[in-house]
C-alpha cells in the first residue's frame, strides 16, 4: 500500500485541484455582497442517517482556504449519525467559509455514503474471519477520499493503484500467453527491477486455480465470478498455500454466503461506485 506521506500528498492534490476548479479567479457571489473582513459561524447539519465520514478532511479544506478558521469537531469520522445531528461548527472569515462550503459538502456526502455502505457489508460478515476489500473502481481524481471512507466504514483497502501491487487479471494472462508464463515473467520483472510487490493472480475456474498453485510466489488467488460450490472447492484446494479472495457478484445478498465458503477476503466495487450521497448541509448560525 502507499505510505502515509503519499496518501496525504494525494489529499492535498485533491484539495488544490478542487478549489482551482470551483473558485477560479474568485468567488464573485461572495465578493459582491460580503465585506472582506466579515466574520461568522456555520454548522454542518446532518439530514440523513448512517456513518459520518470526511470530518477530518473538511477541517483540512477549511484550513487550506484560511488557516485562521476555527474548526470545532462535534462528531468524529466513523460515528453513527441521525437527522438533526451537528458534525462540526466552523467560525471565521465569511468569504473563506463560503469558498470551502461546496467542496466540504461534496466530499463529505460522498465519503459518508461509502462509509455507510461499507459498514453495512462489514456488519453482515460479523462472526466470520472474512474481510471486506475495496477496488480500483473509484471516481477519477478522488480515489484517496473514497478509499479513506472505506476504512472509516470498517473495510480494508486493496491496492491503491497500479503501482503498489501486482494483480494479474484475465487480460494480463491472455496477453502474456497463459497463467504460468504471466507469473514467471512477473517474477523475473520484479527481480530485475528490485521491486518487492505482492502478486495476486485471478482464476476463472478450478483448473486455473490448480495451475496457479504450481507456481511459487503467489500471495493471493482471486476467485473471479465463482459460484458458491466452486468457491468452496477452490478454498479447499488452495488450503494454506496462499490467501483467497472472492470477487464478482458481491452484494448484500451474496456476501455472507461467499464468506461462509471460507475465503479470506471479498472485494466489492459496489461500496465505492454504487452509493447515494448522504444528505448534509452547511448552515450559517
Automatic annotation (TrEMBL):
Q: Give the catalytic activity.
A: nicotinate beta-D-ribonucleotide + CO2 + diphosphate = quinolinate + 5-phospho-alpha-D-ribose 1-diphosphate + 2 H(+)
Which SUPFAM superfamilies does the record match to this protein? Nicotinate/Quinolinate PRTase C-terminal domain-like (SSF51690), Nicotinate/Quinolinate PRTase N-terminal domain-like (SSF54675)
Q: Ranges for the Quinolinate phosphoribosyl transferase N-terminal domain? A: 28-112
Query: Does the keyword section mention Nucleotide-binding?
Result: no
**UniProt entry keywords in alphabetical sequence:** Glycosyltransferase, Pyridine nucleotide biosynthesis, Transferase
Q: In which pathway does it act?
A: Cofactor biosynthesis; NAD(+) biosynthesis; nicotinate D-ribonucleotide from quinolinate: step 1/1
| GO-annotated biological processes | NAD+ biosynthetic process; quinolinate catabolic process
Q: Which CDD domains match?
A: QPRTase (cd01572)
Q: Which GO terms describe its cellular component?
A: cytoplasm
| Enzyme Commission no | 2.4.2.19
Q: Name the Gene Ontology molecular function terms of this record.
A: nicotinate-nucleotide diphosphorylase (carboxylating) activity
Residues binding substrate, per UniProt: 102, 135-137, 159, 169, 202, 224, 247-249, 268-270
**Kind of enzyme, top EC level?**
transferase
| Residues annotated as domain Quinolinate phosphoribosyl transferase C-terminal | 114-283
UniProt-listed InterPro entries? Aldolase_TIM, NadC, NadC/ModD, Nicotinate_pribotase-like_C, Quinolinate_PRibosylTase_N_sf, Quinolinate_PRibosylTrfase_C, Quinolinate_PRibosylTrfase_N
Q: Which family does it belong to?
A: Belongs to the NadC/ModD family.
Function, as annotated, reads: Involved in the catabolism of quinolinic acid (QA).
Its quaternary organisation is: Hexamer formed by 3 homodimers.
Q: What is this protein called?
A: Probable nicotinate-nucleotide pyrophosphorylase [carboxylating]
Task: Write down the species.
Answer: Bergeyella zoohelcum
Corresponding gene?
nadC
